[in-house]
Design a protein that fits this description.
Helix content: 25-40%
Number of strands: 11
Strand content: 15-25%
CATH class of the largest domain: Alpha Beta
Largest sheet: 11 strands, mixed
Number of helices: 11
Shape: globular
CATH topology of the largest domain: Rossmann fold
Radius of gyration: 19 Å
Bound molecules: pantoate
CATH architecture of the largest domain: 3-Layer(aba) Sandwich
Order of helices and strands: EHEEEEHEHEEEEHEHHHHHHH
Number of domains: 2
CATH superfamily of the largest domain: NAD(P)-binding Rossmann-like Domain
Strand order of the largest sheet: 8-9-3-4-2-1-5-6-7-10-11
Structural class: alpha/beta
Length: 311
């Protein structure tokens, strides 16, 4: 696909699997710069992207977040949720005050923190079913071509979905992105902690009676909490999460991958966020509390932010 002059230069912050995949794909439509954790990085990264069995090579311009030339006007944040705010702060004054930001984090909570800390930025968030994993620092597998839904959180008015579509990705603009984030949250609060605790693939949750019973208990509590918080869905959390577990049966969830690699997980923006809603609305969620404590015991304490550790 030919690059047009329609789109401004795009910066992608975070060189994890999602950041690399998105940076590589968007190059089909716009000039893209990859921003990594602070430091002196080689001026370009030779990246291999594997998709549908074919490997393509592309060259990405890259900078450390502390050396990137200013101003940055259009930025896609692809770090893990737990690193989002600190990673943005590491860009310091390089981000234009009224920049257009697109937040691609899992879970909920980190998005509102960014909105509060950058009140003049025009901010949108995305909920995506795209799947990618990194097999080496310069190799990414685009495992699942999904749909990316994008909506404004404050005054974000850039046509991010149009840019994604122009680059050949499936994307659409939605009115209420918070509802879509909550819809994905109710899947993540069922699948992620259980797969991480039991070291199993997503699909195994449906095959093992004791895990299905845990999913049921977590689902009932999640339904009650999200209803109390004002979210309405056409099916239960258990039905939604079961459908996703079936369609991603051979996936190792992101939380299982983090726990296995000894990395911090996004627990606080997934189960932690649900527990905060439960507390705020006075709804009991003892099963979520129990899995929260068990995962917390498995994972390392907070460290410095890492823009390379994206979802
Ligand atoms: O976090 C993940 O791994 C994914 O959101 C999902 C949907 C659970 C599939 O693995």
């Amino acid at each position: 696909m030919a690059k047009t002059n329609q789109w401004p230069g795009i910066h992608v912050l975070g060189a994890g699997s999602m950041g690399l995949m998105i940076a590589a794909r968007l190059q089909a439509a716009a000039s893209v710069v990859l921003l990594r954790r602070p430091g002196n990085w080689p001026a370009s990264l030779q990246l291999q992207v594997q998709r549908n069995g074919a490997t393509t090579r592309c060259r990405l311009t890259q900078y450390g977040s502390d050396t990137a030339p200013a101003p940055i006007s259009h930025l896609i944040l692809c770090t893990k949720s737990i690193d989002a705010l600190a990673a943005l702060e590491s860009l310091d004054s390089r981000v234009a005050d009224d920049a257009q930001l697109l937040l691609m984090q899992n879970g909920m909570g980190s998005q509102e923190a960014v909105v509060q800390h950058f009140p003049r930025a025009r901010i949108a968030a995305a909920s995506t079913t795209e799947g990618a994993y990194r097999t080496a620092p310069d190799r990414v597998v685009h495992a699942a071509c999904g749909l990316t839904r994008i909506g404004s959180l404050n005054r974000g008015d850039f046509d991010w979905a149009g840019l994604f579509r122009d680059a050949g990705m499936e994307a659409g603009t939605v009115e209420d992105i918070r509802w879509h984030l909550a819809d994905k949250l109710r899947v993540n609060v069922l699948i992620n902690p259980l797969t991480a605790l039991h070291g199993c693939l997503n699909g195994e949750l449906l095959d093992r009676a004791e895990l299905l019973a845990d999913m049921q208990a977590l689902g009932q509590e999640a339904d009650a909490v999200l209803a109390a918080a004002g979210f309405r869905f056409g099916n239960t959390a258990l039905e939604q999460a079961s459908a996703v577990a079936r369609s991603t049966a051979n996936n190792r969830s992101s939380m299982l991958q983090d726990v296995t690699a000894g990395r911090r997980t996004e627990l606080d923006d997934i189960t932690g966020f649900l527990l905060e809603l439960a507390r705020r609305h006075g709804v009991p969620a003892p099963t979520h509390q129990a899995v929260y404590s068990r995962i917390q015991a498995l994972t390392p304490a907070p460290a410095h932010h890492r823009t390379d550790a994206a979802p």
